[in-house]
Amino acid sequence: MNRPYYITTPIYYVNDVPHLGHAYTTIAADALARFHRSRGDDTYFLTGTDEHGQKIEEAATSRGKTPQGLADEVVERFRATWDTLSIRHDDFIRTTEDRHKRVVADMWRRIEAAGDIYLGRYDGWYCVSCEAYYAEGALEDDQSCPVHKRPAKWVSEPSYYFRMSRFQDALLDHFDKHPEFVQPESYRNEILSFIRSGLRDLSVSRTTFHWGVEVPGDREHVVYVWIDALTNYISALGGPGGAHYERYWPATCHLIGKDILRFHAVYWPCMLMSAGLPLPETIVAHGWWTVRGEKISKSMPATRVDPNLIASDIGADALRYFLLREVPLGLDGDFTYEALLGRYNADLANDLGNLLSRTLSMTVKFFGGEVPSARPELADAEPHAGLRRVAVDAVREAAEAMGAYAPSRALEAIWRLVRETNRYVDTAQPWKLAKDPERRAELEHTTHAYLEALFWSARMVAPAMPNKATEILAQLGLGDESIARAMASWPDVERAGRDLEAGLVVKKPAPLFPRIDDERAAELLDRWVPDDAKPPKV
Ligand code: MSP
């Protein structure tokens, strides 16, 4: 039995409604969780919202709302978006919940009991957008933050400190012993050089606003929002000693954007070490999606991409597929609607959609809709054996890639199978075989092989496209229970040739991904691109 698989997303700030960047992390985590479930792993997938801190308090005030009121409103937008995008999380944590606040206080007391908290003063810069402290030298010349380009604030207040400097050697030692701790490698190196340049003690409480968790024993202070937020990964499990904690902690993977790597790969492990708790296995950082080269942000209309709108027009699965396939997880990528629609037509409508419709049509035409059996006597004959090798390789490669946090590579492997199967159909010309009664066995064998390739492809694309995978299986003639079973298991290469049951009756094919022609594309773009970001009409 494998170790349980616990994967998390960052908890998202509620000052902004969900956009493409948030959707990306959550979709990737969902696909990984679904993949692990299909491998039989005891899987737990957590997401949620980060609701405390100065940034939320200021956002609420500027809208004439209370912070709790704003959080209650925006959290619903996140929940609804995750529903629309077919996200299947096991829990959703909000940092304003009592179950969370209790564990934050517990974490504080543990760190304090270890002698790692002392009272001091913070006199320095703070960027509310990052919720981060900045040394003078790390700001731009005009004292604005390098990430948000907004002016940092000068803060001068009493503050508790966390003795993070004490953990520098232990953390370096951990990196040394666990090369997989931060992935990909380039980010690991970046963090290592940050740690080597010297860890300083960290200011961990604020006194000039109050929207947060009270510091135990000192009501004047609220816990620094990152200390509060990071604790969600264990508070959702009930905290140390909780049943879920015992079962799932340490996390297998914190999936995050590269913007918040330092908090996860430095602050969080130091906090855990001080509290005497085990560290997560891996922190996987992905790159940024940009729009026209700019990072997606609220203040730039041209970068606003609404995943809800896209999903409601072309389906959540098409968006999920595109995001996972287009850019390798660790790299940055520029989002364009043209690329999205291009892949939709090429990979989904042409490759996968076509494989479904032609194999089902063949089955209907040549076998009255009934799935024929593979013929053992032909198993080793070419070219059929070749297609089987392609299928077996795809199953192995896709699993390996998903296990290595490379969904893009996994989808490439699956598409090799989809495309090769289409190519085999083209060259084998079953409609000619069908005219020759002597070659009936060959026709049965090859049709089964195509259908099984489709059956396997459907199950392998299920983590990325759970709805379309279900549809393919239903069109293949599987009943609800068999569909559930097929979706909950990864193809077993040992069963090649007999995995798809003969005798199922396929449905008449219905288009899986209707092609989007130029006219429809123009219509969609008109709906998707906000008016203030449309190019001027000439
Ligand atoms: N609340 C903190 C995280 C606390 S975790 C203990 C936070 N929230 S956030 O709402 O700003 O979300 C940041 C995360 O959203 C990024 O780490 C990334 O996962 C995702 N993304 C936001 N914009 C993104 C892009 N433009 N591209 C890709 N992912 C992006 O930081």
Protein architecture, described:
The chain has helices at 20-38, 54-62, 67-84, 98-113, 168-177, 185-196, 225-230, 232-235, 243-248, 261-275, 307-314, 316-326, 337-367, 384-403, 407-428, 430-433, 440-461, 466-475, 480-487, 518-528; strands at residues 5-13, 43-50, 91-94, 117-127, 132-134, 153-162, 182-183, 202-203, 205-206, 214-215, 218-223, 253-257, 282-286, 289-291, 294-295, 333-335. The longest helix is centred in the middle third of the chain and has 31 residues, at 337-367. It has 538 residues and is an alpha/beta fold. Bound molecules: 5'-O-[(L-methionyl)-sulphamoyl]adenosine.
Keywords:
alpha/beta; six-stranded parallel beta sheet; four-stranded antiparallel beta sheet
Summarize the entry for a quick read.
The protein is of the alpha/beta class. It is built from 20 helices and 16 strands. Helix 18 packs across helix 19.
How many β-strand stretches?
16
Q: Could you say which structural class the secondary elements and strand pairing correspond to? A: alpha/beta
Q: What is the spatial order of strands in the main beta sheet?
A: 3-2-1-12-13-7
Strand content: 5-15%
Largest sheet: 6 strands, parallel
Radius of gyration: 26 Å
Low-confidence runs = none
SS summary, helix count: 20
From the N-terminal CA to the C-terminal CA, the straight-line distance is 64 Å
What gross morphology would you assign? elongated
Mean pLDDT: 95
Distinct ligand kinds: 5'-O-[(L-methionyl)-sulphamoyl]adenosine
Helix content: 40-55%
